[in-house]
Amino acid sequence: MTANQLTVSQALERMRRGLLSPQELLTDCLDRIRQKEDSTQAWLHLDAEAAQRSLAAPDKAAGQRLLPGIPVGIKDIIDVRGMPTSCNSPASSHDAATRDAAFVGLLRAQDAVILGKTDTVEFASGGRRARTRNPHDPLRTPGASSSGSAAAVADFMVPLAFGTQTAGSVIRPAVFCGIYGFKPSHGAISLEGVKPVAPSVDTLGWFTRSAADLALVAGGLGLALPAATAPSVGLKGLRLGLCRTPYWHRAELAGRAVLDRVADRLSAAGAELVEITLPAPFDGLAEALDIISQAEGGRALQTEYVTQGTRLAPDFRQRVEQASALSANELLPALDLVAACRPAFDALFRDGPDALITLAAPGVAPLLAKGTGDPIFCGMWTALHAPTLAIPAGRDPTSGMPIGIQIVGARQSDGALLALGEWIAKVIDPAASPAREEN
Amino acid sequence: MTANQLTVSQALERMRRGLLSPQELLTDCLDRIRQKEDSTQAWLHLDAEAAQRSLAAPDKAAGQRLLPGIPVGIKDIIDVRGMPTSCNSPASSHDAATRDAAFVGLLRAQDAVILGKTDTVEFASGGRRARTRNPHDPLRTPGASSSGSAAAVADFMVPLAFGTQTAGSVIRPAVFCGIYGFKPSHGAISLEGVKPVAPSVDTLGWFTRSAADLALVAGGLGLALPAATAPSVGLKGLRLGLCRTPYWHRAELAGRAVLDRVADRLSAAGAELVEITLPAPFDGLAEALDIISQAEGGRALQTEYVTQGTRLAPDFRQRVEQASALSANELLPALDLVAACRPAFDALFRDGPDALITLAAPGVAPLLAKGTGDPIFCGMWTALHAPTLAIPAGRDPTSGMPIGIQIVGARQSDGALLALGEWIAKVIDPAASPAREEN
Predict the structure, then answer these.
(1) B140 within 8 A of B87, measured Cβ to Cβ
(2) Catalytic residue among B75, B117, B183, B195
(3) A contact test, residue of B302, B310, B326 with most A CBs within 10 A
(4) Predicted pLDDT of residue A231
(5) pLDDT of residue A133 exceeding 90
(6) What ipTM was reported for this prediction?
(7) Do B105 and A324 touch (CB under 8 A)?
(8) B11-30 per-position pLDDT tens digit
(9) How far apart are CA B391 and CA B262, in angstroms?
(10) For residues A206 and B379, what is the distance between their CA atoms, to the nearest angstrom?
(11) Of A264, A316, A410, B59, which has the fewest CB atoms closer than 10 Å, so is most exposed?
C-alpha cells in the first residue's frame, strides 16, 4: 500500500507513530497524479514546488495542528495565494490570487499542504464542463461541478479536496465516485474568496475517503461541533427517517435498490426506520432553487457579462439577461418559500428522526455523453441550509459502479450528523468495516 | 464654483456640453483633497497616478458610458486592483489586490475613475474607528462604518463614493453628513470582492450629492430599474407611510422635529401621509439583527482569529469565540424571524403606501467622544432586505448640523424608490430646489 491510498486519519496516525513522513505522503500523491492525471484529468493547476515549500516551512502560529502534511486539492473557483483562479472559464482573470480564500487560510494554519486547483464546471454552474473522468470508468462523469475534487480523492491523488454546493455539487460527485462528502449548514464556513454562484444557498463542502476524515476536517475549520447526539455504541435506539422526497419518480432502479438495501442493513443493525413524507410546500423547493440559482447566478456574473463579451458562454449571457425580470417577479416568492420551509424542516426532527436517509442521485454516474447527472435529490437540502453527508454503499450490481446515499439533519446539527455518519458508514460501506478501520 | 462641487449629473452635463474636461474635474477633486484631507481624514489610500492612467486610457469595451471621468472613492473593505484592502485593521493583509471587486469592474466599464480607498470602522464592524471627521464639524462623527466615503462626498472631494450597510452604515452617515445615500435591495449587487461582515444582510450602497445621481449610479451598476410607479408631475396622489418604528422612544428632539417638518412639507406638496404601525413581530428585528451580526460576524473573522492572534482587536476575538454558541442557540430563530417578516413587510405596500418615511438616526451626528451614532432606525430595513434612501432635509436649528430622513420601499422596488426620492428631495432638501437643479 502506498501512502496516497491512506485516508487523512490513517496518514496522520502513521505520521504520529513515525511510520510515515509528510514528504513521503506528498511524493506518493504526486507520483499517483503523474500516473493517472492523463486519464482522470482532475487538475487545472498543480504546484508541487509550492507544496514542497509548505512542507519545508510549516506555518509558525502556535497550537495543535489538525492536518499536518495533508495534501489538499481546491476547486478552481476558490482563491489560493499564488495560483490562478480560472473558474474553468475564458471569461475569468487567470492572474495568480494574492490572498487565500478565508477557509484556505484555516487549512494552512492546520499545516495542510495546498497542492493545486481542481477542475470544475465553468463558474461552477454552466458553460463548459470539467474534462475530469470518473476514476471508476473513464466513460462516465464524476458528477458536476466539483468534479475534479471528487475524482482526485477517489483516484487516490489526495486524501482531501474541497468543492462547493449550490444544488448538488458535493454530495452527487461523492456518491458517483464512491467516496465521502460533507456539506455543512449554510453559512457555517465563510465563503470569502470563493466565486459566488447563488450566495443565499452556496455552501462549501469537502471530500474524503472516510467518515472520520469528514469530522476531522470540520474541526480543523473551526466548525462548531455541538455535543453529538449520535450513538456511542452503535445504532440501537436510533430513529432514521427514510425520505423518498417528492421526486421519487425520478429515481432509477439502481437508486431505489440501494435505498432499500441500506434501510434493511440499518434495521438489522438496530436502528428504527420510519418513512417520512415531507409537507406539501416542500414540493416547490426544487423549482424555487432553480429560480434562485438563475436570478442570483445572473447577478453574480454581471461584471463578466459587461466586461468579457462573448468570452462569457451563451448560457451565462442568457442568465444575466433574464436575471432582472426573474428578480422582479419570481425571486422573492422563491426565497420566501425556502425561508418558510427551513424552520418547518428543523421541526421535523423534534421528537422525530435523528436524521433523514435519502438518495444522493437517481442512480449511478451517467455516461459522459448524458451530462453530469441530476441534482434533484440534493437541491432541496441545499435550499433548506441543512447539513448533508454522502456515504458510499458499495457497488450497483448491474453497472458495477459505486453507489451511495446521503443523510440529512436539521440546520446546525452538523456535529451530530458527522458522528452519525461514522456509525452508518460502518454498516453500509463495505470498505469501512471496523476490521479495516482498526488496521 | 470649482468642478469638485458639481454633482455627478451636473459634471456629466458640463462634459457633454464641452464646458468641462475629465482632467479638470480630477484636478479640482485632487486639489480639494489636498486642502481638506488633514482635517477631514477621509482617505486611507489615494492613487492619483492610477486615476490619471484611467483618464488617459479609458476602458476599451463598446457601448454608452454612464460615468465617464467621474472620480470615485471606495470603502476600504472592498478590493480595488493595485490598491491594498486594509479594512483599517492591523489584522488584514495590506498587499495590493490583484482583482477588482465585481461592482468596481462595472464602474470601470462605465469609465469611472477610481481615486482611492476611504476610511472605515475596522472590518466595518467594530475594533477601531475611522479617523474621519464630519466635514460640517470636525468635533463630530461622520457616522460609522462608511465614514470616509460619506465625508469625502460631503466635503466635495469626490461626487460619488461607495460603502456597505450591515445595520446602518450607509444611511446614517449620509444624513449625518447632509448628503444622499442609497442601499438597494439585498442581493441586488454582487458583493464578490467585499470583505463580509454578516453575509445574510450585508448590502452595498453609495453616496452622492443629489437624488438623481443615486439613480444614475444604479443604472451604471446594472441594477434592475422596473418602470417607476413614482409620480411624473409631483407628489399629488402619492401615499406615504409615516413610520415612527418600535424605537421612537430613542428619537431625540431634533429627530422628532425633522420628521414632523418633513411630513408637513410633503402634505403641503400634495402627498397623503398615513401613520403606519408595524406588526408586533417586527419589534424583534433589532435584536435579531444584532444576533445575526454577532454570529455571522464571528464566522467572517474566523481566519483572522486563528492566524492573526492579538493583532485582531479584543471585541472581534470575543465575537469569534461566542459565535459557535450563538449559532447553535440563537442564530436560527433570528434568521427565521427576519425571513418571516420580509414578505409581511412587502405586503404592507399592497394597496398601502408607496413608500415609508422614517428617521435615519435619532438626531444629528454626535460628538466624536460619544461614538459613531445609533443605527437603530436603519437596522430593521437592512434586515428586511428593503431598499432605503437617505435624503437631507436642511439643518437642525439647535446644533446647526445637517439632518435628514430616509424613505423605504418593498424589496425589489428600487427603481420606484429612486424615482420617488427625486421628487421628495425637491420638497424637503433646500439645496435641491428646482431652480438650483436647472442651474
Answers:
(1) no
(2) B75
(3) B302
(4) 54
(5) yes
(6) 0.95
(7) no
(8) 999 999 999 999 999 999 99
(9) 11
(10) 35
(11) A264
